[in-house]
Amino acid sequence: MRLLFFKDFFDLIFPRTCDLCGRNLFDFESCLCKICIGTLPRTLYHAMPSENDLTQKIKGIANVGMAMSFLRFTKNGKSQKILHCLKYRNKPKLGIQLGELYSNQLNEVDLTNNWDVIVPVPLHPIKKYRRGYNQSEEFAKGLSHGLQLPIEEMLERKKFTETQTKKTRIQRMENVDEVFALIRPTDGRRILLVDDVMTTGATLCSCANVLLANGAKTVDLITIAAGK
């Protein structure tokens, strides 16, 4: 009873609010309110995971089977605000909730049996230290919980690369060339490679190629958000 009193008192003084709209959250809500969850710009990539504009974007760059994204990225939209929260506002739990939400959709189309392990795209240690966590790994944790698949840190980022934001597609490819290395054997497993966002696909393709070159049976891609 006393713990409940202190919780209610703390919530009154420091109310939990939705990471997107700022509304006060109910006890059963995590990082996003039900209204924001219901209006997220979700995609239908999981309905056609092997043939969509994301797989077309990376065709000929990496031999990837499926490519999916939970949200459609739009400038100044909800997906961009979510990514900003993850990268700059210390919201790791938001990444976990997004992963759990997307795993529900993936389970609806029974894709789980396609993978043996989830591998997050790594941050450089310096960047991870500054941020305190890897947002792609937090998203992977949510997917892992919902899909009942293990997570392994299989890759490392050897170089501290410049931001990709204002680079062309060719410049992005060059920026991540030979950046990633294997730190744990793939053991011929089917890998679900996870990142926060796909723009040109340069980072994901670079990681996928390292995994495939080192014996991964298949590599598929999932991101929190992606633009056309």
Task: Please give a structural write-up.
The chain has 228 residues and is an alpha/beta fold. It has 2 domains: 1-39, no CATH class; 42-226, Rossmann fold (3-Layer(aba) Sandwich). Helices cover 39% and strands 15% of the residues. The chain has a 4-stranded parallel beta sheet with strand order 1-6-5-2, sandwiched between helices. It has a two-stranded antiparallel sheet with strand order 3-4. Strand 5 (190-198), helix 9 (202-213) and strand 6 form a beta-alpha-beta unit. The chain is globular and about 50 Å long. This is ComF family protein. It comes from Algoriphagus halophilus. Belongs to the ComF/GntX family. Residues 103-226 form the Phosphoribosyltransferase domain. InterPro entries: ComF/GntX_DNA_util-trans (IPR051910), PRTase-like (IPR029057), PRTase_dom (IPR000836).
Short account of what is shown:
The protein has 228 residues and is α/β, with parallel strands linked by helices. The protein has helices spanning 2-13, 34-38, 53-58, 78-88, 92-108, 125-131, 135-147, 169-175, 202-213; strands at residues 67-72, 117-120, 155-157, 180-182, 190-198, 218-226. The protein has two domains: 1-39, no CATH class; 42-226, Rossmann fold.
Characteristics:
228 residues; alpha/beta; Rossmann fold; 4-stranded parallel beta sheet; 15% strand; disordered N terminus
Strand order of the largest sheet: 1-6-5-2
- The coarse overall form would be globular
Number of strands: 6
Write down the CATH topology of the largest domain: Rossmann fold
N-to-C CA distance: 52 Å
Question: Which quaternary structure do these chains form?
Answer: single chain
The averaged pLDDT comes out at 90
What fraction of residues sit in β-strands? 5-15%
What's the order of the H and E elements? Answer: HHHEHHEHHEHEEHE
Structure class: alpha/beta
- What is the domain total for the residues? 2
Q: What is the tally of helical segments?
A: 9
Question: Biggest sheet: strands, sense, closure?
Answer: 4 strands, parallel
Rg calc: 18 Å
